[in-house]
Write a structure and sequence with these properties.
13% strand; xylan alpha-1,2-glucuronosidase activity; 20 strands; binds beta-D-glucopyranuronic acid; 672 residues; TIM Barrel; Alpha-d-glucuronidase, C-terminal Domain; Chitobiase, domain 2; polysaccharide degradation; A-glucoronidase_C_sf
Length: 672
C-alpha cells in the first residue's frame, strides 16, 4: 500500500497550480519546488525573476528582494507596513494579482500553504492587505521514538501508527523521501521544531548526541528546507554513560566542560540545531536529585552549554514520585510539578523552557489546567499536549482533540478576560502521533489531530470546528472520490463531538485513569491503579467516589490556583461538574449542576456514549462507495473496535458503581 498524501494531495493545489506564478528572491527553493510541481500538474506557469514579464496572477516574493518586478507587488510592499517577521507573511490582492510577501523563505513557504488553504478564494475575492504571524514562537512535536526496539514499549513509546519513520531495529532508516514528505506536512501547518527520540533515553539513543550524531544531522538536513529545526532528547547521565566521568553533578567543573565540548561538536555538525529535551528525576530517569541539586541547577547546566550557539533546553516539569504509598493520603501526585518547580521561578536561565503537561496528572481526557502555568511569571513556559492518543483511545477510537486543546489554551487562570494560557506560554509542544503507517497515524481520522495541533499552535483562537473543516477540505477527505458535501457533513457529525463522547463512556466527572495497566492504558480497569504506587486514585467505596483536593480536608492541591479558581474548585457548589471528582469526594446521591445525581450521571453518560459511537459507525457505513476503499475499510474496522471497546467501558464502569453503591438505574436499564 502506498503512503497516503494526508492533507496535501495534488488536488489541493489546483487553484494555485493553474495560474501564472512569479517567484522572486534568493533561497526560496522549497517554495519554487512546490510551485513548479503544482504548475506542472495543473497547467500553470512558473517564472523566476528577474524576468521582464509582469503579466502574472500571483507573486510570491521576499520583501527585501529588489527590484520587486510587478507594480502590484511594489504597491503591496508599501502597504504592508510593519515587517511580518521571521515566520510571518503579508497577503494582499489588488486588481487581478495576488501578492504574497515575506521576510524569509520560511515565511514565504507558510504563506504558500495559506494560499493552498484558501484555494480559489485567493484569486477571486479581493483580499485586504493582511499580516499573518504565528502567535507562539515554537510549535514543536516530540517523537517518543526509540532507535532500538524497547522490550516493553516497542519502537515508538505510546505509538499507535506502526514503527518509527526515523529508526528501525537499532539503526537509522535513511528513508529520506518519507521524512521529506513529513516535513512538508508539518510546514503546511506551521510546525517548526521536532525532537527525534524518546524522552526515556536508552543506551543506544543516548549516543545520538555523540557517535551517532550523523543520523540526526541527516534528518536535520532533510527538514531544514521546511523551516523545521531538530532537537534531541538527552539523558542527564550523559557525562557518565557517554563521557566516562565518575559523576553527572551539575556543579562539577568536568561535567560542565563535557557538556560544553559535546554541545559545541553538535553545532559544528548541525549549525541550526534546536537544543535538548530532558526528562529528569522522573519515572526512573536520572537527574540532579541524585547529587542533591535542584532542577534549576540541572537545567542551567545544559542551558549554559547551549547558550553560545543559540539553543534551548526543554526541561520537563513531569516530575513526581512513582513509588508512593497508596495508603498515605497526604501525598498527591497532582501537587508534584507545582511543589517541585514553582519555588524555582526566576532561577532558570533565559534559554530554559519549562515544558509543562497541560494537566497536573497525566494527559487525561479531562483534567484541570496545570496551576504551574499560572505560577511562574519569571520562567519561559511551554504547554505540552499529547497528540498520540495514549489515554484517548490509542488511534483505535475516533477522538478529535481540537475542542479540548482549544479549551485548555483559552483557559483564563486569573479569570480576567485578557490573559489566557495561550498568552502565558511562549510555545506549544506535543507528543507526535505519526509512524510508518500508510495513513501516517494508524487511524486515518487521527490525522486531524496532528493538523489541529499545528493550526492551534499557530493561532490558538481558531475555532476547532473550522480547523476540522480546513482539514476535511484539504484532504478532500483522504481518498474521497465524490460527493464532498455529504462526506464533509458526515465527518463533522462523527468527529466534532467525539472527544466528549469518549469522555462519556470512560472515567466519569474528571476522576481520570481507570485504564488498564496490563493493556498499556487501553480499555477499562477501574481498580487497575487503585492499589498501586503510581499515585492515581479514585477512592471509590460504598458511600462515594472522588479525590478530596481541597485545603480544608483534602490534599490542598486546589490551593495551587490563583485565588479565584482556588475558590471555585474548592466549593462543592461552584466546582464545574466535569471536574467534580477531581476535586471532591462525594456521595453517590450528590446532585450535580445538571440536576442529575452522580450515580445517575455515570449510568446515563455511559449509555449515551455507547449509543453515540454506534451512530458514528452507522454514519460511516453510509459513506461506502464514496471513499478510497482501503481508507474506508480502515476506518470501518476501527469503528467496530470502538463500539466493542466503548461497550466494555460502559459495562465495567456501570457494573462497578452499581455494585459499590447498590443504587439501581432510574430507567431500569440492564446493569449487573
Ligand atoms: C506517560 C506515559 C509514559 C511517558 C510519560 C512521560 O505513559 O510512557 O514516558 O508519560 O510523559 O503518560 O514522560
Amino acid at each position: 500500500m502506498s503512503v497516503h498524501a494526508a492533507w496535501l494531495p495534488a488536488e489541493s493545489f489546483v487553484a494555485l497550480g493553474s495560474r501564472r506564478v512569479l517567484v522572486h528572491g534568493d533561497g526560496v527553493d522549497t517554495v519554487l519546488d512546490e510551485v513548479t510541481r503544482a504548475c506542472a500538474r495543473h497547467g500553470g506557469q512558473v517564472r523566476r525573476s528577474p524576468c521582464g514579464d509582469a503579466d502574472v496572477d500571483l507573486v510570491l516574493a521576499l520583501r527585501q528582494a529588489v527590484p520587486l518586478p510587478v507594480p502590484a507587488a511594489q504597491a503591496a510592499r508599501q502597504a504592508a507596513g510593519e515587517p511580518p517577521g521571521d515566520e510571518g507573511f503579508v497577503l494582499t490582492r489588488s486588481g487581478d494579482v495576488t501578492v504574497l510577501l515575506a521576510d524569509t523563505p520560511t515565511g514565504l513557504l507558510y504563506g504558500l500553504f495559506h494560499l493552498v488553504r484558501l484555494g480559489a478564494a485567493a484569486f477571486t475575492v479581493d483580499q485586504p492587505t493582511r499580516r499573518h504571524r504565528p502567535a507562539l514562537r515554537r510549535r514543536m512535536l516530540d517523537h517518543w521514538d526509540n532507535v532500538s526496539v524497547h522490550p516493553v514499549m516497542g519502537q515508538v513509546e505510546r505509538g499507535y501508527a506502526g514503527g518509527s519513520i526515523f529508526w528501525r531495529d537499532g539503526a537509522a532508516r535513511h528513508d529520506l523521501a518519507r521524512i521529506r514528505e513529513y516535513g512538508r506536512l508539518l510546514a503546511a501547518v506551521g510546525i517548526n521544531a521536532i525532537s527525534v527520540n524518546n524522552v526515556n533515553v536508552g543506551p543506544v539513543e543516548a549516543r545520538l548526541l555523540t557517535d551517532r550524531l550523523d543520523d540526526v544531522a541527516e534528518i536535520a538536513d532533510v527538514l531544514r528546507p521546511y523551516g523545521i529545526r531538530v532537537h534531541l532528547s538527552v539523558t542527564f547521565a550523559a557525562p557518565v554513560v557517554l563521557g566516562g566521568l565518575p559523576t553527572a553533578d551539575p556543579r562539577d567543573e568536568q561535567v560542565r566542560a563535557w557538556w560544553a565540548t559535546t554541545t559545541r561538536q553538535v553545532y559544528e555538525r548541525i549549525g541550526d540545531f534546536g537544543g535538548y529535551v530532558v526528562k529528569a528525576d522522573s519515572e526512573g530517569q536520572p537527574g540532579p536529585f541524585s547529587y542533591g541539586r535542584s532542577h534549576a541547577d540541572g537545567a542551567n547546566l545544559l542551558a549554559e552549554a547551549l547558550a553560545p550557539h543559540g539553543g534551548v533546553v526543554h526541561w520537563r516539569a513531569f516530575v513526581y514520585n512513582h513509588h508512593q504509598d497508596w495508603r498515605d493520603r497526604s501525598t498527591d501526585r497532582a501537587r508534584a510539578a507545582y511543589d517541585h518547580f514553582v519555588p524555582l521561578d526566576g532561577d532558570f536561565r533565559t534559554n530554559v523552557v519549562l515544558q509543562v503537561k497541560y494537566g497536573p496528572v497525566d494527559f487525561q481526557p479531562r483534567e484541570p489546567v496545570s496551576p504551574v502555568l499560572a505560577a511562574m511569571p519569571a520562567t519561559r513556559l511551554a504547554m505540552e499536549l499529547q497528540v498520540t492518543q495514549e489515554y484517548t483511545g490509542q488511534q483505535r477510537h475516533v477522538c478529535y482533540l481540537g475542542p479540548w486543546w482549544s479549551e485548555l489554551l483559552g483557559f483564563r487562570p486569573w479569570q480576567t478576560p485578557e490573559r489566557t494560557v495561550a498568552d502565558v506560554v511562549t510555545e506549544l509542544v506535543a507528543v507526535s502521533n505519526v509512524g510508518d503507517d500508510p495513513f501516517w497515524c494508524g487511524h486515518p481520522l487521527a490525522q486531524a489531530n496532528l493538523y489541529a495541533f499545528g493550526r492551534l499552535a499557530w493561532d490558538p483562537r481558531l475555532d476547532p470546528t473550522a480547523v476540522l473543516d480546513e482539514w476535511i477540505d484539504l484532504t478532500s477527505p483522504p481518498g474521497s472520490t465524490g460527493d464532498t458535501g455529504r462526506v464533509r457533513a458526515t465527518l463533522h457529525a462523527i468527529m466534532d463531538d467525539s472527544w466528549r463522547t469518549y469522555e462519556r463512556y470512560t472515567a466519569p466527572l474528571g476522576v481520570g485513569f481507570m485504564v488498564d495497566p496490563l493493556r498499556h492504558h487501553y480499555g477499562p480497569n477501574v481498580d487497575g491503579y487503585e492499589y498501586s504506587r503510581w499515585g492515581t486514585y479514585h477512592f471509590a467505596d460504598r458511600d462515594g467516589v472522588g479525590v478530596d483536593r481541597t485545603r480544608a480536608t483534602g490534599t490542598g492541591y486546589a490551593g495551587q490556583y490563583p485565588p479565584g479558581w482556588a475558590q471555585v474548585y474548592e466549593s462543592l457548589a461552584d466546582c464545574p461538574d466535569e471536574l467534580l471528582l477531581f476535586f471532591h469526594h462525594v456521595p453517590y446521591d450528590h446532585v450535580l449542576h445538571s440536576g442529575s445525581t452522580v450515580i445517575q450521571h455515570i449510568y446515563d453518560t455511559h449509555f449515551t456514549g455507547v449509543a453515540q459511537v454506534e451512530t458514528m459507525r452507522e454514519r460511516w457505513r453510509q459513506l461506502a462507495g464514496l471513499l478510497d476503499q482501503a481508507l474506508f475499510e480502515r476506518v470501518a474496522e476501527r469503528l467496530d473496535e470502538q463500539v466493542r471497546s466503548a461497550t466494555e467501558w460502559r459495562d465495567q464502569i456501570n457494573t462497578y458503581f452499581f455494585r459499590k453503591s447498590g443504587v439501581p438505574d432510574a430507567h431500569g436499564r440492564p446493569i449487573h
